[in-house]
Amino acid sequence: MKVVTARINKKSICIIALFLTAVCVLTAFSVKLSAENAEQKRTESSSEDAKIQAENTETECFMKDKNGNAYFPKSDVTVYLTFDDGPSKNTPQILSLLKKYGIGATFFVTNGKYNEYMKDIVDSSSAIALHSYSHKYPEIYSSEKAFLDDLEKIHDLVQKETGVDARIIRFPGGSSNTISKKYCKGIMTKLVKDVEKSGYIYFDWNCENGDAGGKNVSADNQIKNATKYSKKAKSIVILMHDIDSCGVNLEALSGIIEFYQNEGADFGVITENSPLVRHKVKN
Ligand SMILES: [Zn+2]
């Protein structure tokens, strides 16, 4: 009888020991599993946060350069230097001055004697945009068709010279010009819609150096004019001219760039993603 009890006791101890081992193994396994789950959830939620943050950052802070690459502006004010009516004999000097400051500008070009400089604009850190082929107000503003034909001609010329399918435009005289009324009443109201329908985006300006008066404006006065801007503006689009005579002078351009650099502003070129700066249409 004693032998039987001893055998049963030994058997029970073995079963209890086996049971306890199994419980320990299972507990350890489930603790490990729940730790892994928590870690996975943490990773998922932090990558979700990062995604949301990246999306917000993209809409709030990113800007895009002329090649469509995103970059962070250094400040919340961006200055866009723009030159109308070029290229001219002065274009190479303007480009090398911009290079010296490490910035680019936007050139709204016309057909002229120096079309070969269009390629130099594109090859620098500047951007090319369209102004007019003939720049003759009585012709281009005589009808919608006349304007769009002229625009297509400058578009094709730029594409031939540079390979760029330029989509940013500026109306001769700006969208607010009233001189067009002389040739066709109400034409600007129609053209602002026509050009958008044809896949172009037009830009005016909200600051200028005043070199368009046809007479030489001193460097001091060009700087004074180009540095008068609304403190509320986040985008300062400065109109200047790239013409053989009476355009921007290099001393003035240096002064204008240094003024805005000292203000901590960023310099940009106009792209399809730039905030629109437009006038009120008056014809
Ligand atoms: Zn012009």
Please give a structural write-up.
The protein has 283 residues and is of the alpha/beta class. The chain folds into 2 domains: 1-60; 66-267, Alpha-Beta Barrel (TIM Barrel). Helix content is 47%, strand content 14%. The protein has 8 helices and 10 strands. The strands form 3 sheets. Strands 3, 4, 5, 8, 9 and 10 form a 6-stranded parallel sheet that branches. A two-stranded antiparallel sheet has the order 1-2. The longest helix has 59 residues, at 2-60. Zinc ion (ZN) is lined by residues 84-85, 131, 135, 172.
Find the count of extended strands (DSSP E, 2+ residues).
Answer: 10
User: What structural category do the secondary elements indicate?
Assistant: alpha/beta
Helix run count: 8
User: What hetero molecules are in the model?
Assistant: zinc ion
Q: Per DSSP, what share of the residues sits in E-state strands of 2 or more residues?
A: 5-15%
Briefly, what CATH class of the largest domain? Answer: Alpha Beta
Radius of gyration: 33 Å
The major sheet is characterized as:
6 strands, parallel
Report the principal-axis shape.
Answer: globular
Q: Characterize the quaternary organization of these chains.
A: single chain
